[in-house]
Design goal:
Elements: E1 7-13, E2 16-24, E3 49-50, E4 57-58, E5 65-70, E6 73-77, H1 79-87, E7 92-99, E8 109-117, H2 122-135, E9 138-145, E10 148-157, E11 160-166, H3 187-199, H4 213-226, H5 247-269, H6 272-287
């Protein structure tokens, strides 16, 4: 399906204005959702709003929106006023500074968008993408939309730009508020943990190596339901983890298990040519 642009924007890069189109980078259709149905006849349910004071159903044309400024005290806004507030924004992404991408903690990441060049923006767009890639920097900017201002970063991805919407610092709960206590770790335990990390270490993250196993189990369960079959709870759940009694024993078991799995994987990957060569060498040795 062809991607639909969400908006037309302009990147303000120094004195250069780059017209771009905004696209969502996330496919929401990939999520599985369930509908609310009437148990008796399986028909869809319609949402209704009930007046807390009168206990009666309020139709949509009778509904207004308000802001609670004190307990049970509201100021009312008309639909036109709310629309004006939501439209208070800017069609421009103003670049403020350039920083190393590694300096932006992923904790602040929110939504991800793509930016593609609009008409007449091909050359300055390519210039910005190339300059960011060669300098290994990302652009930090401000963008206002639907009555809110956002911090965003623009970073090169393949031959285009990704725009990452960020949380403000005040929106992120500091981890120190959880009161996490540190525990003493022995050198032997740390050594084993490091060995596990080294065994399972990769050069870079490959998203294609992972699939949504929970979604696959749900889809399989849905298909069984469509076929008129019953499903068990065990078909939808992973095996529960066992209790860790001895940390050292658990670390050693993890190391042995992963080492064996790596050996099996390498054996499976052995090329037929190499396997044939090994077999030929073995036959020669047996004749000697």
């Amino acid at each position: 399906m062809e991607a639909r642009a969400l908006a037309s924007l302009t990147i303000s890069f120094g004195l250069v204005a780059i017209p771009v189109k905004l696209y969502s980078a996330i496919l929401s259709a990939e999520k599985i959702s369930f509908n609310m149905l009437h148990k008796a006849d399986g028909s869809r349910l319609r949402q209704q709003y009930i007046c807390a004071k009168e206990g009666t159903v309020v139709e949509r044309e009778e509904i207004v929106k308000g802001y609670e400024f004190a307990k049970d005290q509201f100021v009312i806004f008309t639909p036109a006023e709310i629309q004006a507030l939501q439209e208070a924004g800017s069609a421009a992404i103003h670049i403020v500074e350039f920083v190393e991408l590694a300096s932006v903690d992923p904790l602040y990441f929110d939504r991800t968008y793509y930016l593609a060049p609009d008409k007449g923006g091909g050359k300055p767009y390519t210039l910005l993408v190339t300059a960011l890639r060669e300098s290994k920097q990302c652009a930090v900017g401000r963008w206002a939309s639907h009555g809110r201002e956002y911090i965003v970063i623009l970073r090169p991805i393949e031959n285009g730009l990704a725009m990452q919407q960020l949380h403000f610092a005040a929106e992120v709960r500091p981890i120190k508020s959880l009161g996490i206590e540190t525990a003493e770790v022995r050198d032997a335990e740390l050594k084993l943990a490091r060995q596990i990390i080294d065994q399972q270490g990769g050069v870079r993250f490959d998203p294609l190596a992972y699939v949504d196993e929970v979604k696959a189990r749900i889809e399989a369960a849905i298909e069984k339901k469509i076929q008129g079959q019953e499903i068990s709870r065990a078909e939808l759940e992973d095996a529960p983890p066992g209790n860790i009694v001895d940390l050292m024993a658990a670390l050693k078991a993890s190391l042995d298990k992963h080492g064996a799995s790596i050996a099996n994987e390498l054996a499976a990957r052995k090329s037929p040519k190499r396997a044939a060569k090994t077999a030929k060498t073995s036959r020669k040795a047996s004749r000697v």
